[in-house]
Each structure stands twice: as C-alpha cells, then as structure tokens.
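Predicting holo structure, iron/sulfur cluster bound.
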Amino acid sequence: MAEDLNWAVGGEAGDGIDSTGKIFAQALARAGRHVFTSKDFASRIRGGYTAYKIRTAVEDVQSVVDRLDILVALTQRTIDENVDELHDGSAIIYDGERSWEADIPDGATAVDVPLKSLAEEAGGAIMRNIVALGAACEITGFDVEYLDEALEKRFGGKGSKIVQNNKAAARAGQEYVQANYDLDLGYDLEVTDEDYVLLNGNEAIGMGALAAGCRFYAGYPITPATSIMEYLTGRIEEYGGHVVQAEDELSAINMALGAARGGARSMTATSGAGVDLMTETFGLVATSETPLVITDVQRSGPSTGMPTKQEQGDLNMALYAGHGEVPRFVVAPTTITECFWKTIKAFNLAEKYNTPVFLVSDLAMSVTEQTFPPEAFDMDDVEIDRGKLVDDDGVDEWLDSQGRFRAHAVTDDGVSPRAKPGTVDGAHMSTGLEHDELGRRTEAQDERVRQVDKRNRKVETAKNTEEWEYRDFGDPDADNLVISWGSNEGALVEALEYLEDDGIDVRVISVPYIFPRPDLTEEIEAAEETIVVECNATGQFADVIEHDTLTRVKRINKYTGVRFKADELAEEITDQLSEEVPA
Amino acid sequence: MSAFNAIGEEREIDRDEYTPGVEPQPTWCPGCGDFGVLKSLKQALPEVGKTPEEVLTVTGIGCSGKLNSYLDTYGFHTIHGRSLPVARAAKLANPELEVIAAGGDGDGYGIGCNHFIHSARENHDMTYIVFNNEIFGLTKGQTSPTSPKGHKSKTQPSGSAKTPLRPLSLSLNAGASYVARTAAVNPNQAKEIIKEAIEHDGFAHIDFLTQCPTWNKDARQYVPYIDVQDSDDYDFDVSDRAEAAEMMRETEDVLNEGTVLTGRYYVEEDRPSYGQEKKAVGELPDQPLAERYFDDDAEWERSYDLLERHT
Ligand SMILES: Cc1ncc(C[n+]2csc(CCOP(=O)(O)OP(=O)(O)O)c2C)c(N)n1
Ligand code: SF4
Ligand SMILES: [Mg+2]
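Done. Tokens:
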C-alpha cells in the first residue's frame, strides 16, 4: 500500500476552501509527490459544508480512502462530517479564538492556531487559510518553501506584495506550531525530484479538444460540465477558435452542429439535464452525417437530482437516446489521462465516420485533481484524422455523371465524403429527412434501405478496423473477474492491493468503450465469478454485459452521490464473492 | 490560398445557376406564397454577386423548410425550430459564407422563438426569412403563433382566443438591426428587401407574408398591399427606434383588418455584429475558424504549451 497522507480543509462554501486545497495540492506536486484530490460540496454559494481532500504519496495514488490524517477545520461541522475518518494519529488544525468551541473527537490531536490573528498580522484576515497551510506543513514535516512556489503561481498575477504577505502568513502558521506544540505524530513527507502536472478530468477533456484541433465549442452552463467551457474560454482563441455561450442546450448542440457543417472541428458538453434537451438533435447529426463530439459529464439524476453529486446513471441515455435508430459511438474515459486521449479519439472517430460521438465522463473525474508525469500527455503522440473531408481537388471523385456532389454516396465502408460550404463544385443538400446519395429527400423503399444500411455499415467498419480494447489489471488468470466502466478504475486498481493482502485474486477489466464495446464473453466464461461495478442503482452496464454474453453477473452499485473508495470496494468485492450467483 | 475557393469568386452569375438539376419543380400547392420567396431569392442572389457555392441556406421544418431543396446552394434542412443556431454558427465558422436561414411562422415564432430572440439580440450577421402564412401549413392548418384572434382551425374550433404574436415589434425589441416585411405577391419589393438584408452587416429579419391558399383561406392573398416607403400616408424614419416601433405596431394591428403594410421598418447601420464585437475583444480570430486547418503553418498547433499551466 502506498505510504500515503490524507489531508483535508473544510468549512463553509465561500470560505475559499477550493483554492486553499488546490494551493496545497500544487505544493505537493511541486515537491514531486503524487496527489489525488476529491471534493465534498453542497450546491450553494454560501452556507453549506464544503471540503477539499488530498491523498498524497510518493507512489501513484488513484483513489480516496476512508481515513483522514490532517484536517484543517474552519467550522465545527467540518469536524462532525469527518468524525468517522479521524483516528488516533489525526491532527485537527482550528482557530480557538473563533466563536465556536471546537469539539475534538477522542484520540485526535487538537492543534489550536490563532489563524485569523496571525493572518491579520501578516497583512489581512483573508489569509487565514494560508496560515493553516503553514501549520499543516509543520505538522507533516513538509518544507514550507514548496508552498511558496504554489503561492507564487496562485498570486503572482496580483503583485509581489500579495505574494510576500501570503508567504509570511504561511510562515506565521508554521512557526506558531513549532513554538507552541511538541508534536510527534510520525508524519514526515518525503519529497522527490519528479516534476508532475496537476489537472482534473474536465481540464484534460478541454486540453484534449484543443490538441485534437477543436476550434468551436458551444455550451450552456451546467454543473459539472461548465469547467470544460471555462477551460476553453480564453485559451481556444490562441489557437484560432471560438467559444459560444448559447441561450440553451437546444441551441448549444445546434450551434456546434452548424460550426461542424461550416468545416470546424466542433464540440458541445453538458450534463444529464442538458443531454435531455440536446437529444432532439442527435438524429439530425447522424442522418446529415455530420461529425460532432457531444460530452456528458454525468451527475446524479433524474431531474435536477443531486447536481453536485457523483453518478453514472446516463449510460442508457448515451446508448439509446433519440427516436429512431441513431448510429453513434459512445466512449467513456476511465482516468484523467484517458479523458485527454479519448477526447482526441472521439474527434477522430467523428470525422472518420461522419457521425455523433458521445464522450461520457462523470462528476467525480471532473473535480478530481491528480498528478501525472508530463509524458502522459505527449503532444507528439496526438494524431489527427479528418476522414473523407474533400477540398476543391478532391470533390471531382465524388461527382455523379451530371456533376452533382454525392454527399451521401453509398460506399463499401459506408463512409461518404464531406465538402464544406465554399468548396467549388461541392454544393449539395443535406437533411434530417431520409434522402438519397445527393441529399434529396426520398421515401423510396430501396433508397431508404440503402441509406440505413450505409450508415450502419460505418459502425461495422469502425468495429472491424478501430481498436476497442479494454484495460486489464490484476491477475489475468484469476477466477474472480471485476468489470467496470468510467471513473471507477482507479479505486478498483487500488482495491486490488487490499484484496491481494487478503489472498484474494482478482482480475479487473476497465472498459472505456461503451459502443462499440469489446466482447467479454471469453473473459467471463474463463472466470468463475463476475462482478460489475458502477455508480448507479440499476446496473445499466451490468445489463449490457448480460445481454452481450448471455451470462448472469453480480453487481456492485453505489448511488449515494459519492464515488467508490478503494478500501470500501475491496470489502464489497470480498462480500459479493462469498454470495450465491444470481439465478 | 483560401481553402474555400468558391468564396469571393468574381464572375457573371446566372439566375438559372440557382435552379437545381436535382429537383427543379417545387411541390408546393398551386398559388402558394412560398413560390414568391424562392423567386425573389433567385433574383436577389446573383444581383448581390453571390455564386451558389458561397451561399449556405439553412431551413427549418414546414412547407417553408423545403426552400433549399429548390435552390441550388449549400443547403441544410434542419429540424423544427432550429435553423437559427445552426446557421449562425456556420457563419462563425466561416464568416465569408453568405448565410441565410429560413422557416415558417410556427418554426421561427413558436418552437424556435427563443433562438429568434437571441439571434436578434446578439446581432449575428445573417439573413433570416420567416415565411409567415399565419398557419401551420405542413401539418394541415393548425393555429400558429401569428394566426389572428378568432381564427378557427381544427385545433381551435371556437376560434383562437389568443392575440397573435407581433413579429416586427418582437424583432425590434429583441435587437435585430434590420427589420422588414414583404409579401409574396410583391416579388420586386421582396427582391430589393432580400438584397438589402443580405448586404446588411448584422441580423436582418424579413417577415415574409406568404399566403397559404390550402389551409388559410381566411387570410387574403395579402392584396392590396401598401409599401410604407412609397405611400404618402406614412412618414417615419427607419433609423429611429421609436418611430419604427410605432409603425410596426400599426402594421401589426391593421393586418388582421385587411390592410397589408409592407416595407423597411428598422435599419440600424452602425451596430456591430456578434462577429465584429467578438473580433474587437480578441475572442474571435480574423481568420475563419474552418480555414485554420488548411494553413500549412498551423501544423495542427499541437499545443505543446498547453501543459504549462498545469505545472
Ligand atoms: C419537434 C417537432 N414537433 C412537431 C413537428 C410537426 N410539425 C412539422 S412542421 C410544423 C409546423 C409548420 O408550421 P410553420 O412553421 O408555420 O411552417 P409552414 O408549413 O406553415 O411553412 C409542425 C408542428 C415536427 N416536425 N417536429
Ligand atoms: S399547404 Fe399552404 S403553405 Fe404548404 S405548400 Fe400548400 S399552400 Fe403552401
Ligand atoms: Mg406557417
């Protein structure tokens, strides 16, 4: 198991919890330590508990666990919310001068630091969280100079005075603890020479989009998708692109579609409720054979559900939403690095097959910040394939005997050419109505069948020529097989270590492709028991696997609104393995 | 070299170029006003020097939505109510294109009305033609947002209880910078208005009265019509918002009493379009988004520096 430290800062929404946590995470990343963060928050701007949690180790960390070592508590509720995770070696940093009487659980060490007073001395009460970070450095044996670097990055734009004050505040906290406490909790954060980048899943999607040449984005704000739009805004322009905040999701997807028809690589992103509205346009994207990437960062539903909580409840929607039969691809990245790579793949699939691609992520991944070696995002490995996009020279090949462009040409691979408006000799119609090769609407039975077959043939071609591989962990010959999709991968990979310690052999298959998807029949047959893990109540992926393989599987479902934790998963898997296979 | 060679091509353009070899004969009912829109558009486009390949027409669903099936341009027939977001984004992706959106009164003032308001508000540089026949034509005569109060239909057998929507006033208040009304029975005025709308830099809205003899027999053929610019009875300044608003209200009020007023109602020349405004603040590059890909120097701009902010 990784020698890890679990740290958190918590308080009221509006207390600057997020930026405080991020500064500490950055300091740790700068010190060559791995970081995996998570957030507890309520969807209120002010008033409401919120916390930023960091798990850090020298080795790679990919999950949260049920243990808290250092807690910076700005409110009593922060302590109460986390009481189960505290233990005898935990330290709680709080401000005893504040009006609340801290009720410290038995065993935990109380570290009372006058955060506000020290901050005021350093230049302003606003820096009280930074004082707390200094105190945390002292308790964990972490050099405060790493914090300096993070503070420079965070406040550098606001002038050197602000940076200096913050550095002073951090030192005040550190020195206060040094002078007033003689603690030996055994924490001593090791540092390394590694240089890591720190980013969350939505940033990775945004970065992937830019690297893939996405030059148009339209969206309508919705948690937790908004940060993709915010990432691209101000950045995409540097690469010659543009972001639009549309009047609603109906408009957002149609704008993304319009820009794609205009010739730009284009995408929209939203979350569940927004996908409902966008669904109207899926069929048009597919029948007009327009490349488009549609991202769903899932949150808890149905309806407004729990807007700031984790869930993987949209799998069926991604697979089936839209009336009629809509050919599509569904890709669900399983890690933050994969958010980057699968976004690029999504753009290539869209343009190679002129069809909608659903990129399905989730809230947990979108807010988690994690460290990676920069090579994990090697831009030289980015490949761009624009498929059968033709220019003035390429058009000729696709004209009929009367010189008309066959935008929906029936081909062996099912893929037709694309000509952007403005291309000489490429003028054509395209429509959501059934049409012939030229885009003329038709209800002739033979034409209908030819076009439906052609569109479905694209999917077959992709199935046979693209790679749809799954990710394999643990012992490939184990009797026990655990299958998962989306962001549960990290927690499962870590759960393997717990299981191994208990002598339980498990193979984990993490599936990033929902449609087309790998056929797991052989893998399931080879295993004695199969469990499908997902964050929803009904087991949508388990249903799909049972349908594919005609085999009953066991299920682990979580729909509390909180992502899986590694230790919790290990326990659940152990329990399930001892139970009867469902009939 | 531009990747869009059709754009800016200088040559004689023949009206017939706009008549597709594919489907030259429209399937609208005899006497339908939609023919008038097609005819005036075919006349206007060559006169403003546009070749079929530099024009994108985006339509909604309805009898009106068939327009681009009979017009040889780049055509995109969308879904009910959504022509505007598609059209305005295509324009952003390639501002050199001439983008025209079109659809019915149900399409634009009903199901797609939110997009109409916001496209006007944002002053996207495009032309929007609403075929206003005061009825749902394609679905066989149901009440539309512009059907007059008291108008009977299969869905409103006792007559519509609702006051019709005011397309011109709505357009002005939403922020359109060019607002006009014309009628199918007046193709010459229609052609001139379409030309002005195309040449206007900003959102140009044409409420085009198109009679539906099949389902809206109550509505006259929109004759006789009066051109408010030609008539001595009306005197207002199209650049004056208040005067325009008053003229629009009167026009909307008298339509259902049998007086058909048409013409230009509001023209705001100096208001920047969405694209101009975004370019001014550096949020929209000068080079068309869609063109970057064909720029050899772009080398896909692999964005090596993207990672820097995450260190
Ligand atoms: C989402 C959706 N709802 C309903 C319809 C059915 N429908 C097609 S056209 C139309 C209204 C047509 O009226 P209008 O927009 O005025 O066009 P017109 O036929 O009069 O030109 C309706 C309700 C549809 N195609 N899509
Ligand atoms: S139903 Fe009316 S609007 Fe439709 S084609 Fe016939 S006359 Fe024209
Ligand atoms: Mg109508």
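Chain B touches chain A through 66 residues (CB under 8 Å).
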